[in-house]
Automatic annotation (TrEMBL):
Name of the featured protein: Methionine gamma-lyase
Family: Belongs to the trans-sulfuration enzymes family.
Extent of the signal sequence: none
Cofactor entry: pyridoxal 5'-phosphate
């Protein structure tokens, strides 16, 4: 049977011929010629777009340029003895043996290969949502009595998981820190108890940039595993290249790009990913946040143009942020030279991908934030009032009363979330000048009503 090793797993080229234990022969060799098997050399980082282009391309069952969808929930075997060997772990997806799609599915595994290439990790596994990826990783790495050190600037759902659910359900506690204060991070680590340092590469919604190399050095010196949420910065940052052990994503956002799919991913060492799929102890296997094969197929067709989309998201975000700042507004965007993390982000970022597709305008009060969003959506048609990000249209929300509402007022203050902070996921539809005109007109309307407070 022809095989290709890719990012920590060995994937069979095609459905095994004949008997379960067949080695292949001539037929398998013919199949192998259709695979275009290649990939990045282990330990050598490539530009993420180059790494994606070098990952194995999966052809369809009948030679289609796109892979086939393996929509089966369960899989047959040729001999009764094979099933026993599959359940003992002797035979598995590395040799093209599949049991049940909650465990491993060929189409979902292919998407995992793409995510591993994108993030430069050994392996990846894709899940039903970003939160399922985050919660599964943390429960795999931490046992009852375990401890996590996490940034106080996090997505509200993650903050709620760490603050409320994990302590109650799993006896796992978290100490929240200012991720920029490395002395505070180090002091929060409890020797022998702290298992994970968790932060977002670019924080939601404050756009704080974490010094990933230094934080990884600090954590590893203390025997702590580093988990980084890179949802805000795919292509822009590569946390695993910078030292992170595990990278998680809400694929629902920039990677999907269509605001029509909920999905997540865990990217990291093959040993960890395999342990998470263990029949007896695996968090992903036993909690069951399974990605549907049809969803995996949809996403696998979008990842190849992620680089093009991210470049335009970032280009427009930088352009609009620069112009708004010149107009005197309080703008938060790490691409601006006066952002406290601008130099840091520039030193870590992958070349030519910009500084991210999210910018914030701080209107200081919720009332002014809501009025601005009203004008932007209902008067000038600049974008939509909606949560999430990475869509081709601009999406806007007042974070304090929406995606960060799980946090108390005190927690929001500690995280640096102003009551009037408007988070904008900058879209790329229409021309740049067309969209700027709509944004500028809404700002002018705010000024006419005396609602525009400038620096």
């Amino acid at each position: 049977m022809a095989e290709a090793r890719a990012h920590g797993f060995v994937y069979a080229s095609k459905k095994r011929p004949g008997s379960d234990d067949a080695d292949g022969g001539e037929d398998a060799m013919v199949v192998a010629k259709k695979q275009m098997i290649s990939g990045p050399v282990a330990g050598v980082w490539e530009d993420p777009a180059a790494a994606l282009a070098g990952a194995r391309h999966e052809f369809g069952e009948h030679g289609g340029v796109n892979m086939s969808i393996e929509a089966s929930a369960t899989f047959t075997v040729m001999e009764p003895e094979t099933m026993r060997r599959m359940f003992t772990g002797e035979l598995g997806p590395d040799r093209d043996f599949f049991i049940y799609s909650r465990h491993f599915n060929p189409t979902v595994l292919n998407l995992g290969r793409q995510m591993a290439a994108l993030e430069g990790t050994e392996a990846a596994y894709c899940t039903a949502s970003g939160m399922s990826a985050i919660s599964s990783v943390l429960m795999q790495l931490c046992s009852s009595g375990g401890h996590i050190v996490a940034s106080q600037a996090l997505y509200g759902g993650t903050h709620a998981l760490l603050t409320h659910f994990l302590p109650r359900a799993c006896n796992i506690t978290t100490t929240f820190v200012d991720i920029r204060d490395h002395a505070e991070v180090a002091a929060a680590v409890v020797q022998g108890r702290t298992k994970v340092l968790y932060f977002e590469s670019v924080s939601n919604p404050t756009l704080t940039v974490a010094d990933t190399p230094e934080l990884c050095r600090l954590a590893h010196d203390k025997g702590v595993t580093v988990v980084v949420d890179n949802t805000f910065a795919p292509m822009v940052l590569s946390p695993a290249r910078l030292g992170a052990d595990v990278v998680v994503h809400s694929i629902s956002k920039f990677i999907s790009g269509g605001a029509d799919i909920i999905a997540g991913a865990v990217c990291g060492p093959a040993k960890l990913v395999n342990s998470m799929m263990d029949l007896h102890q695996g968090a992903l296997m036993l909690l069951g946040p399974t990605m549907n094969a049809k969803v995996a197929f949809e996403l696998s067709e979008r990842i190849p143009h992620l680089a093009l989309r991210m470049k335009e998201h970032c280009n427009r975000a930088l352009t609009f942020a620069t112009r708004l700042k010149k107009m005197g507004l309080k703008v938060v965007y790490p691409g601006l030279e006066d952002h406290p993390d601008h130099v840091l982000l520039k030193s870590m970022a992958n070349k030519d991908y910009g500084y991210g597709g999210i910018m914030c305008v701080d209107m200081e009060t919720e009332e002014r934030a809501n009025r601005l969003m009203h004008h932007l959506q209902n008067v000038t048609q600049f974008g939509f009032m909606a949560v999430s990000l990475g869509y081709y249209e601009t999406l806007m929300s007042c974070s304090g009363s929406s995606t960060s509402s799980e946090m108390s007022e005190e927690e929001q203050t500690l995280a640096g979330i102003s009551p009037g902070l408007v988070r904008m996921s900058v879209g790329y539809i229409g021309t740049l000048e067309q969209r700027w005109g709509q944004l500028e007109k809404a700002i002018a309307r705010m000024g006419e009503f005396g609602l525009l407070k400038k620096n």
